[in-house]
Design a protein that fits this description.
By secondary structure, the chain is α+β, with helices and mostly antiparallel strands. The chain has one domain: Fumarylacetoacetase-like, C-terminal domain (Fumarylacetoacetate hydrolase, domain 2), CATH 3.90.850.10. The protein contains 6 helices and 12 strands. Strands 1, 2, 4, 5, 6, 9 and 10 form a 7-stranded mixed beta sheet that branches. A 5-stranded mixed beta sheet has the order 3-12-11-7-8, with no helix packed on it. The chain starts with a helix and ends with a strand. The protein binds 2-oxoadipic acid (OOG) and magnesium ion. Keywords: Lyase. It holds the Pfam family FAA_hydrolase.
Length: 254
């Protein structure tokens, strides 16, 4: 379908050049399958430019995020190495249209996870867990979108920062966390906000990725989704996350 290729080109170019675009499906007429086809084709363009696939991000896995964006279906997107921001490092504001940051927890896998798995099976495939910050940046004007829009736009995925990798055998079901900007706490929450247990997000990632024909691979990172609402980030700010028991991470928005 040429529409799919055309929307993929539009959204990939918008992301590449940090330029906002009109919503592609403001009336929500596109099927979710087609929206994911646009996402896949858009990421394929990044891979053709030499980026490497490194994992999956989950979206709308907490009530705080659903309420903030007015959508309630769990979505997912594809992560590439080009989206990685070094822990404690700097990312340039010019790479984004209107970035926001949100506190998450990340998994890295030591085994593939294919299809329907239990939480126990999912945990057995986890090499480590880490506190993480996602930088989301919708390519749509005013950060406004329908469900097909945001899926096509790779679930607003733009950057991710990962803190220290920790033993996954500690209990990470309900860890307190704070997100700070320039040292001022702006969001307080818990990993329990993520589907009541972040492992549920990994289980969903395994199911959805396999259904798309791209099962989770050993070495991939899975971002579990924002535990709180996201915060706007301005140039010059330092954004940091502290998570009970796991430590923290941060980045400069240059
Ligand atoms: C969509 C992405 C949602 C999350 O963690 O819930 C997401 C958005 O809010 O723009 O990344
Ligand atoms: Mg997120």
């Amino acid at each position: 379908m040429s529409n799919i290729t055309e929307f993929a080109r539009l959204l990939d170019e918008a992301a590449r050049t940090a330029t906002e675009v009109d919503q592609i499906d403001p009336k929500s007429e596109m099927s979710l399958e087609d929206a994911y086809r646009v996402q896949q084709a858009s990421i394929a363009r990044r891979l053709e430019r030499g980026e490497k696939r490194v994992g999956v991000k989950m979206g709308f896995t907490s009530r705080a995020k659903m309420v903030q964006m007015g959508l309630s279906d769990v979505i997912w997107g594809r992560l590439t190495d080009g989206m990685r921001v070094e822990e404690g490092g700097k990312t340039s504001f010019s790479r984004y249209v209107h970035p926001r940051a949100e506190p998450e927890i990340a998994f890295v896998l030591k085994k593939p996870l294919d299809g329907a798995v239990t939480a126990v099976e999912a945990l057995a495939a986890v090499e480590a867990v880490a506190p993480a910050i996602e930088i989301i940046d919708s390519r749509y004007k005013d950060f406004k979108f329908t469900l097909p829009d945001v899926i096509a736009d790779n679930a607003s995925s733009s950057g991710f920062v990962i803190g220290p990798w920790c033993d996954p055998h500690q209990d990470f079901a309900n860890l307190g966390l704070t997100l700070s900007i320039d040292g001022r706490v702006v969001q307080v929450g818990s990993t329990a906000a993520i589907l009541a247990h972040p492992l549920r997000s990994l289980v969903a990632a395994a199911r959805l990725s396999a259904a798309a024909g791209e099962p989770l691979q050993a070495g991939w990172v899975v971002m579990a989704g924002g535990a709180t609402a996201a915060e706007w980030i301005k140039p010059g700010q330092y954004v940091s996350l502290e998570m009970e028991g796991l430590g923290g991470c941060g980045f400069h928005m240059g």
